[in-house]
Write a structure and sequence with these properties.
Elements: H1 3-24, E1 33-35, E2 41-43, H2 44-60, E3 65-68, H3 73-77, H4 79-92, H5 98-106, E4 117-125, H6 127-131, E5 137-144, E6 147-155, E7 170-175, E8 179-184, E9 187-192, E10 206-208, H7 217-227, E11 234-235, H8 240-246, E12 252-255, H9 270-278, E13 282-285, E14 305-308, H10 313-325
Parallel strand pairs: 3-4, 10-11, 10-12
Antiparallel strand pairs: 1-2, 4-5, 5-6, 6-7, 7-8, 8-9, 12-14, 13-14
The chain binds adenosine monophosphate and magnesium ion.
Magnesium ion is lined by residues 122, 125, 268.
Length: 326
């Protein structure tokens, strides 16, 4: 089941990795980054990738909706940005016009929810990591009747297992009941991956956001202390956290809110969540409930997200409760 969807997700994410790579070396160049209304950054890469994925989706699965992070507003704000996005998108879509570009980006305005099928896209997850020249991900998932059933994560800078820093890039993909696989962006056969089997929390590696505004690092340090974790946290941007957990390089991912009013976006977790669960891990909110992707463009939970190798999950949840009530 979903074989055509996995092939599609994998190949469009690979195409997107090629595009974002062209930009990352030059993003510091003036005009490539733009502050959105909420002051978060968007780059030429985010907008071009969204246009390309939306266009390919309309060709391959015309009946499916798309929930995606960006809209064409920044193109109206800045003609310079619009010109750069168009040039980049035309590498994949020759002859594309500015109107077609804006229409393609705005195809990502689906409300999500529990009925039918829709795809969920974060064209560049971890834009801040992207702008720092570090890790980021292209995250695409298919939600069917409110459940994530397919996911692909393109991690263009991810090193080979065991290394940190920038490497040659990996793509992860998973489908419900079919397991999780990883392949190099350079090609080669996808190979099954799985979470580690560490059941002693003192040996666990905890991964967390680089950005202190995205997660409560001090609370997370308290949780790690309660668990007796010895290693320093592995800080890495974007859904690459789910990817490194899924291939056994970390056992715990903590994402406790800095701001309890913030609601996590479905595109920041859908692809990562299925890659983790199909690799044998578990992802829940702080109450131990699976993430609910059926509520629209955001997740309902505001209390935090925990992913683990499964074996450590209940102990991590207990440590979170203890830390938060202390
Ligand atoms: P990460 O690279 O894991 O830190 O996460 C990047 C994602 O964090 C971005 O895609 C944003 O959608 C999301 N984000 C932005 N602001 C916040 C916030 N206050 N709390 C949690 N996540 C956020
Ligand atoms: Mg994101």
């Amino acid at each position: 089941m979903y074989d055509a969807e996995i092939d599609f997700a994998r190949s469009v994410v690979a195409e997107a990795c090629t595009l974002t790579r062209r930009v990352q070396d030059r993003v510091v160049e003036a005009g490539d980054a733009h502050a959105k209304g909420d002051r978060s950054p968007v780059t030429t890469a985010d907008l071009a990738v969204q246009a390309v994925v939306a266009t390919r989706l309309a060709e391959h699965f015309p009946g499916d909706g798309l929930v995606a992070e960006e809209d064409s507003g920044p193109l109206d704000d800045s003609p310079t940005l619009a010109g750069k996005v168009l040039k980049l998108a035309r590498r994949a879509l020759p002859g594309l016009s500015l109107d077609e570009l804006a229409d393609a980006i705005d195809r990502g305005d689906h409300p999500g929810g529990s009925g039918g099928r829709h795809w969920v896209l974060d064209p560049v997850d971890g834009t801040k990591g992207f702008l720092r020249g570090e890790q980021y991900a292209i995250a695409l998932a298919l939600v069917d009747e409110g459940e994530v059933v397919v996911g692909a994560l393109g991690c263009p800078n991810l090193p080979d297992p065991g290394d940190r820093g920038n490497g040659r890039g990996w793509i992860f993909h998973a489908a419900r009941g079919a397991g999780a696989r990883a392949m190099q962006t350079a090609g080669g056969a996808p190979a099954p991956i799985s979470v580690d089997r560490i059941d002693d929390p003192s040996r666990a590696i905890v991964c967390e956001s680089v950005e202190a505004a995205h997660a409560a690092h001090s609370v997370q340090a308290g949780i790690a202390d309660r668990l007796g974790v010895a290693a320093e946290p592995y800080r890495i941007d974007s859904q690459c956290k789910y990817a490194v957990l899924a291939r056994g390089e970390a056992s715990i991912y903590l994402r406790l809110p800095r701001d309890e009013a913030y609601r996590e976006k479905v595109w920041d977790h859908a692809a990562g969540a299925i890659v983790i669960t199909e690799a044998g891990g578990r992802v829940t909110d702080l109450d131990g409930h699976p993430l609910d992707f059926s509520k629209g463009r955001r997740l309902a939970t505001g209390r935090g997200i925990i992913a683990t190798n499964g074996l450590l999950h209940d102990r991590v949840l207990q440590a979170c409760r203890d830390e938060l009530t202390s």
